[in-house]
Structure formats: C-alpha cells, structure tokens
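Q: Hi! New to this. If I give you a protein sequence and the SMILES for nicotinamide-adenine-dinucleotide, can you show me the bound structure?
A: Yes, paste them in.
Q: Okay, here:
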Amino acid sequence: MSESQSQDPKQKTALVRHDDAEAFVISLLQAEGVRPDDAKVVAKALVQADLRGVESHGINRIPSYLARIRTGGIDPLAVPTVEMVTGCVAKVDGHNALGPLPSLLAVRTAITLANQHGIGLVGVSHSNHFGMSAWLVREALDAGYISLIFTNSSPALPPWGGRVPLLGVSPIAAGAPAGEKSGVPFLLDMAPSVVARGKVHKAMRRGEQIPLGWGLDSKGRETTDPREVINGGWMMPIAGYKGTGLAMMMDVFAGVFTGAAFAGDVTGPYDTSGKPGEVGHLVVVMKPDLFVSAEEFRRRMDVLYERVVGCEKAEGVDRIYFPGEIEQLTEERRIREGIPFVQDEIDALNREAERLGVEKIKVVENP
Ligand SMILES: NC(=O)c1ccc[n+]([C@@H]2O[C@H](COP(=O)([O-])OP(=O)(O)OC[C@H]3O[C@@H](n4cnc5c(N)ncnc54)[C@H](O)[C@@H]3O)[C@@H](O)[C@H]2O)c1
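A: Thanks. Here is the predicted structure of the protein with nicotinamide-adenine-dinucleotide bound:
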C-alpha cells in the first residue's frame, strides 16, 4: 500500500509537501504573535517529525501549541538566555518560550563548548515540550558530533507498583555520526513506554483503536480505546520496572539536576489552564575523536553498522535496520512524495487557519 492511501478506508488521505507544511505552520505561529525566526525553528522541528514518520510529534501538535499560547501557558515572545556555569557547562533559561527554542539554543551552545573542550553539557529549565527528540540529535549529527538529548515531561505513568500517573514517558535520545561507507548515523530516540503517548493521541485524532498493551484505563485495565488511556488512564512502561526506572532517570537528569520541575510537576503539552510547562532538558554533546581519531571512529561505526544489518536474520525478517534508519528512509521518501495526513487532520489544521485568518494548508492535487 502506498503512503498516499490511509489504512482506514473511512479516511481519505491528503499529501502535503514538506515546504508547504513548514510555510503553513510558520504562518499560523506568526499570526499568533511568534517572531518569524522563532516560528521557522518550531515549524522545522514539527515538519521534520512528519518527514521521519513520527506523526505523533508533527504539525498536528500545532493546535495544542497555539492553544497554550492563547491561554497564557507559553510566552510567544520569550527569548531564552544562556549563562556559563564552568568552562564546558552552561545553563539555558527558557523563560517559558516554545520548547524548540531553548532546546535548540542548548544544543548549539553544547556544540560550541564541545568544539572548544571536547564535551559540552547544557541544562535547560523553564522550557516547554520540544517535540521529537531526534530533530535535536540531528542538529548535533549535522555538525559532526555525538549527543545525548534528555527531557522530562508531564505525568503519564505511575512508578512501578503504583496506580497514579507521576512520571513522564520522557524520551531518551542519542546520536553518533555515520561511518564513511554506510552513511547511516546511529540515532536512537525512544520513549520508556511501549509507544510514545503521542501515538495514542494520534489514534484518538484519527478515530482508530490502539493495540492491547499500549496503555491502561483509569482502573488499570488493558484497553484498545485511546480515549480511555488519555482520559485518566496511563501508558505501559517498556520491560516493567526497567521502563519506569528509565522514565525516572529522565526526571533526575532533566528535572531534578537542571532546576526544572520534576516528580509530577511538569505541565502537559495539551494543558490550557495557563500554567507554564516548566519542562527540563539536558544536552550532552561530544567530539567523536576524543579517544580514537575521527577516521578510526568512522571506520568503527562502519564495522558496527555492517555487523548489525548483516546479522543472520530471524525467520520472517526481510531486513535488519540500524536505530534511526527506518525514519531516515521514510524522510527520503517523504521529501520526494510528500507527507500523508488523514482528512480529519487537515480539517483540524484548517480550522486554525480560519481562526487566525491565514491561508489553508496546501495539499498536493492528484497525488
Ligand atoms: N518531547 C516529549 O515529551 C516526548 C515524549 C515521548 C515521546 N516523544 C517522541 O516520540 C517519538 C516516538 O517515540 P517511540 O518510543 O514511540 O519511538 P519508536 O518506538 O517508534 O522508535 C524508537 C526507536 O527504535 C528504533 N526502531 C524502530 N523500529 C526499529 C527496528 N525495526 N529496528 C531497529 N530500530 C528500530 C527507531 O529508529 C527509534 O530510534 C520520539 O521521537 C520521541 O522523541 C517525545
């Protein structure tokens, strides 16, 4: 089945070119009072998620970001600031800006520090949801650096043995530049839950059921109804207490350590009560040639890649992928063919356009 066909026969699919998606998001954000350069950063982050097939964190997030701006939860004009802590450590204060702004500033600062010292460590407080972590890993990869990108997030699952959501399903992301031959970087970006909560929101948006095992309802029962997970239920951690341990790790490193909110106090990206997100991030950027030469590093990455994808395959498996490779292939295809959205999603985006008096999103005619 091609990407321009929806899996749900009730839902028509529309294709949107990535540059049209970006222009649309920029126009919405600017109409809501965001500066043009800041709007570009946010749009690029969201569209990159759609390009990589991470639709849970793509432009369909824009109505919730706009709602948070309108209700005072996010300051559309805030300018994040940097303060040095030691020679290779800095602190970014997001001042309650849209999450992509302080997080990008943190990565760029960490790259500068890593360039001078081999490693750069940046803690971020007073931030908001930054979307898909991979776009920040990519920023470091494009500059040739290894990185760890941590964030905390709003309560979505209880500690192991509990029954009240407390920890975020906060993604753990890491990247290392590609070898010379493979051209495929290592890019792991994963929530500590079976799937990201955004995938449950996506199913709810599209009127679809979710597989058993993704989440529980408010009574702790397994459910296939995404609404029951979002409204009072919680997400399933990966590998039981190990998943909740990883979720807590993100809260320690990105929350407790950086001075941001933690232990259930982070405000969610769909909250419209006017409360700031108080999200925390931690960024570590490292030069790949700290222990072996740059050339040797690339050669070793090629060895790893070749051995991983060349591993003898289990029955029924066509191909083994490196972390991030499926998304890289999706991105290459979607740049050529466009990004598929279901009609309900296009309609929701266009309702924002009408409300703000900007042009509707441009879809590809006769895909
Ligand atoms: N900002 C936030 O608060 C927040 C919270 C949760 C999740 N997220 C985002 O949600 C997104 C989705 O998270 P997820 O956990 O559902 O991701 P996922 O399960 O789709 O993928 C996780 C990782 O596994 C790799 N992978 C997938 N299939 C593979 C295969 N067959 N072989 C080898 N590797 C494979 C992917 O490349 C990726 O690195 C992420 O981009 C994450 O940053 C953001």
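A: The mean pLDDT is 96. Let me know if you'd like me to explain how to read the tokens.
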